[in-house]
Amino acid sequence: MSLIPRKASVGEVPILDLGPLVDGGDIRSLARDLRAACEGTAFFYIRNHGVPAGVIDARLAAAVPGGVGAALAGFHYDTALRAHPAALAATLQVLTVAQLLFGTDAPLRVSADQLQGLLDHGFSAAELHAIECGNAQRLLPRWKPAA
After folding, report:
1. Which tens digits make up the pLDDT trace of 121-146?
2. 126: Cβ–Cβ under 8 A, 6 or more apart, which residues?
3. Partner of 143 at 20 to 30 A CA spacing, among 6, 58, 119, 131?
4. Residue 100: in which H helix or E strand, if any?
């Protein structure tokens, strides 16, 4: 297993076509594809959802005046169900390591899976420390152990 970080290719992220759902067509294939995406990458794109781009853009502009990137930068995120190559690569395109907190989503995933996913990504020792406890201690200084 490689510890060299890599970016997920577009071909690794499933694209789900909601056209049959919007148009009242047969959705069995869509249901199979959705299940496969959730069990595989746990991350997917959606197309043909029927909502015009102008509507989405206007709603986003009204809800997030500074832009989505600025809104996302104000939050912190756990690693639960995110310690997968494609999900981590996508996450780190938008966030920084300083925004990640260790999480497992137990009992759906065990801690060992989460740790292995983080190790496989190739984070440095300092980045792993930040994710595992440093970022939380920075956010909640009263819980930081005495030196």
Report:
1. 989 999 999 999 999 999 998 887 77
2. none
3. 119
4. strand 100-101
What tokens appear for 66 in the block? 């500074």
pLDDT band at residue 7, thresholds of 50, 70 and 90?
low
- Helix residue ranges, H only, the chain: 19-23, 28-39, 53-63, 68-73, 85-94, 111-121, 125-129, 135-139
Q: Take residue 2 and report the two structure tokens written for it.
A: 């490689």
Domain boundary assignment for the chain: 10-143
47: its two tokens: 């197309």
Quote the CA–CA distance of 142 and 125 in Å, as a whole number.
Answer: 24
Q: How many residues does the chain have?
A: 147
- List the structure tokens of 132: 């595992």
Cα–Cα distance for residue pair 64/71, rounded to 1 Å:
7
